[in-house]
Design a protein that fits this description.
This protein is of the alpha/beta class. It is built from seven helices and nine strands. It is globular and about 50 Å long. Helix 1 runs antiparallel to helix 2 and helix 2 packs antiparallel against helix 3. It binds S-adenosyl-L-homocysteine. The site of S-adenosyl-L-homocysteine has 24 residues, from strand 2, helix 5 and strand 4.
Length: about 240
């Protein structure tokens, strides 16, 4: 208990001294302190324990993935608008879904709903290759630019319909969907490797949605029902 308290106190002192230097040096430092607080207060305090996930969320500059006029709220405890009626998810939800994937450096991951590219960057830190699909071409183009300028050579963005998955690179050891379909898309389950995990929010646009964690086994699929969530809908484009 005493040791924990001391560690806690040291942490506070370190943050305060970092805050002082941030005030003198400005911008980038301030954001890294905001990231530190986000990790401590929004993630660790709520039970996110995977050290690799916490380190990735500390490292990836979330403010580079939101529009200029939203940068001040990039690290706040909620979703942030990214244009075209879409949002980048709340940090806790990004961390929770990423932790649920149990990523290893060998994983090949499919993400549906690239949006800003932030979740894809987190995946890029933790997996071997990331393939991410975005329906809105302008968002796909924006995410491609941001991910390239942040140096994520292992993240590949495509504009298209996520309901179809990305068959050319299947099977995927992990799949994450960051928009809500009404039922789990069959093509995505088919593109999941045996032993793989699919994390997806399921439910109607204006009703109760729930995160589901599916595991594909040799015999079929098992489903764990998890958090109640609210995502933008996964849109079915006209055929
Ligand atoms: N993961 C994103 C946030 C996702 S918001 C981030 O980190 O910023 C959900 C995204 O899913 C939106 O950008 C939306 O355009 C996209 N989307 C909705 N329906 C889709 C579909 N059928 N295929 C691919 N992307 C879709």
């Amino acid at each position: 208990m005493a040791i924990l308290y001391l560690v806690g106190l040291a942490g506070v002192l370190m943050m305060e001294s970092a805050q002082c230097s941030a005030d003198q040096t400005g911008g980038g430092q301030d954001r890294s302190i905001e990231a530190q607080r986000m990790v401590a207060d929004q993630l660790r305090a709520r039970g996110i324990a995977d050290q690799r996930v916490l380190a990735a969320m500390q490292k990836v500059p979330r403010h580079h993935f939101v529009p200029e006029d939203e940068q001040a709220s990039a690290y706040h405890d909620g979703p942030v608008p990214i244009g075209h009626g879409q949002t980048i998810s709340q940090p806790y939800i990004v961390a929770f879904m990423t932790e649920a994937l149990r990523l290893t450096p060998d994983d090949v991951v499919l993400e549906v709903g690239t949006g800003s590219g932030y979740q894809a960057a987190i995946l890029g830190e933790l997996a071997r290759e990331v393939y991410t699909i975005e329906l809105v071409p302008e968002l796909a183009a924006g995410a491609t630019r941001t991910l390239a300028s942040e140096g994520y050579l292992n993240v590949h963005v495509r504009s298209g319909d996520g309901y179809l998955g990305w068959p050319e690179h299947a099977p995927f050891s992990k799949i994450i969907v960051t928009a809500a379909p009404e039922v789990v898309p069959e093509a995505l389950v088919n593109q999941l490797a045996v032993g793989g995990t699919l994390v997806v929010p399921v439910g109607p646009q204006h009703g109760a949605q729930q995160l589901r964690i599916l595991t594909r086994t040799a015999k079929g699929v098992t489903t764990e029902r998890s958090l109640a969530v609210r995502f933008v809908p996964m849109v079915k484009p006209p055929q």
